[in-house]
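BUG: 3D viewer hangs when loading the predicted structure for this chain

Environment: internal workstation, default settings.
Expected: structure renders.
Actual: progress bar stalls at 90%.

Input used:
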Amino acid sequence: MAATIYTQIDSNRHKTWLIMFLFSVFVTGVVLVFAYALGYRGTGALGYAGFGLIVTGVINFFSYYYSDRMVMALSRAKQIEKKDNPELYNLVENLAIGSGLPMPKVYIVDDPSPNAFATGRNPQHASIAVHTGLLQIMNKQELEGVLAHELSHVGNYDTRLMTVVVMLVGTLALLADMFLRTLWWGGGDRDDDNRGGGILMIFGIVLAIVAPISAQLIQLAVSRRREYLADASGALLTRFPDGLADALEKIGSYNGASKTATTATAHLYIANPFGKKAGSWFLRLFSTHPPIEDRIKRLREM
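Structure tokens produced before the viewer hung:
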């Protein structure tokens, strides 16, 4: 098991940059199609594409560097020190030492649902937050399993990967919206007599509708794979897979939804914060997390 996990972790770190590059190329290609569909040619097409990428690039820059603060603010999380909750703080500190990672900031969210999440662009700027509902029902081994899972997200660079993927999906949605609005209102130095304009226009409209949905499905698929990897990495860190498995069973038995989670932050949590269980394969495509029963089964078999 260990060799497989180590291989997956190393692969994940390298694939982060590959996914960023390929997704960026895809977004650039979509923008160019939008430009040509609107009738822009030559420098006009490049200028349109450049403007769209610059605007979204600025948005993504601030999102990348300040996303952790925004998430904590949205979740109404409060940062704690060792004196505020010694047991929780010590568990995180010990796991950080054991994994060779810097000590992350620790937050508590006043929310009765048992859940937790990690965020931050890299291990040096990471934060872990736990709900009060989680602290109330978990024993020490179960809480350690949850924290190891979240710390594994940090160590595997999942927090950075998902931040980048979410930003790129948002970029694509924004660009598609810009295209449709420009198409509706007209304007620009366009070549309306171009013979391929009609076909390109139809293709651009279809792409503006399909591309954001496809990108979101990719985001959700990546998110589900990262949960499996964090489960395995967390089990490796604690050397006790049953601790996390028991924790997931308790989390899965909770019927309520989080009061502080949003659709924008749902992928960060250890389990679906809205308490929804995707039964059919179609619903699972749009789920941020793999089936909790499947995760428990895999942990029990380790």
